[in-house]
Amino acid sequence: MSVKLDLVTKLYGTQKALDQVSVKVNSGEIVGLLGPNGAGKSTIMKIITGYLQPDEGSVEVNGLAVKENSLAIRKQIGYLPENNPLYSDLYVSEYLEYVAGLYAIQGIRSKVKDMIHLTGLEREQHKKINELSKGYRQRIGIAQALIHDPAVLILDEPTSGLDPTQIVEIRQLIRNISVNKTVILSTHIMQEVEALCDRIIIINQGKIVASDSPANIKAFGNNETKLYIVEFLEPVKDKLLLKIPGVLEVKSAADNSFVIKGGTDDLRPYIFKFAVEQKLTILTLSRQESSLEKEFMRITGASNNN
Fold first, then answer.
1. What is the Rg, in whole angstroms, of the alpha carbon atoms belonging to the chain?
2. H or E, element range at 199
């Protein structure tokens, strides 16, 4: 089931939360929404679910316009909001039975049992929600989003505030349930989108500024400039290293160690040739690969992340 936004604009007063955003998420795809705080990620999610209406543009889920088919589309969408509101005085199974009842699901107890098993809540199902850790409360949030077997799953910061072990567990859970679903998730954790997502959409100041696979976004940075760290056994002057073909900049890192900046060509053969000609011994030579975090900062601008 695909999700499509076409020239969507959303205003909060005079501020444009979204500015003519167009994006399509294909059936079976896992897409990560990245962006600084206030960039418009949650607004996109709320518009897809029908919780908010755009001021301009159109939104479709599986070819149906959200505005005209809001109720029908909501039956096909599972949504975990960032704050994960739960009835904390209910027991786990009691709460999930309540949610299943809202969807008029047949065989409620059987369905709740399946969700409890899928989300790993067996040991906690007889506890009240307020007795559980945040990790288990997130599992309950995912269970309520899945209980009606939606075709589209929307997760807003699903691992926010969790410890490293809980993050790994929730990440594996999302991977397991995404096999037959279209998943859109918002997160600030770069490792999460690298581990889970087929594609990343980066939004900044209400506009889509990048849309590609994690590997391609990282590779784009590598295509512009490359950094190398080299350590020699013997002392070397910076000015001498600048004579290596393709070297743009040299900075001293430590005794006989340097950070060399080059263009798109691989400089390692030239650095080795230089060492041989100058009768120098290279102790270490490595190329620094671009990271998703670096590319995110480059694309959005570090000043926007305050």
1. 25
2. strand 199-204
68 and 158 co-located in one domain? yes
Q: Interhelix angle for 292-300 vs 214-222, to 10°? A: 70
Which pLDDT value is given to residue 56? 96
- The whole-angstrom separation of Cα 212 and Cα 201 is 7
Whether 126 is in a domain gets the answer no
Which residues are within 8 A (CB) of 106 and not within 5 positions of it... i.e. 6 or more apart?
Answer: none
Residue numbers in the chain where pLDDT is lower than 50: 303-306
Q: Report residue 205 as tokens.
A: 């100041």
Tell me: the pLDDT tens digits for 264-296?
788 999 999 999 999 999 999 998 776 788 888
Query: Is the four-CA dihedral 295, 185, 66, 84 of positive or negative sign?
Result: negative
| 265: containing domain | 221-293
User: Could you tell me the two tokens for 148?
Assistant: 């009606």
Query: What does pTM read for this prediction?
Result: 0.77
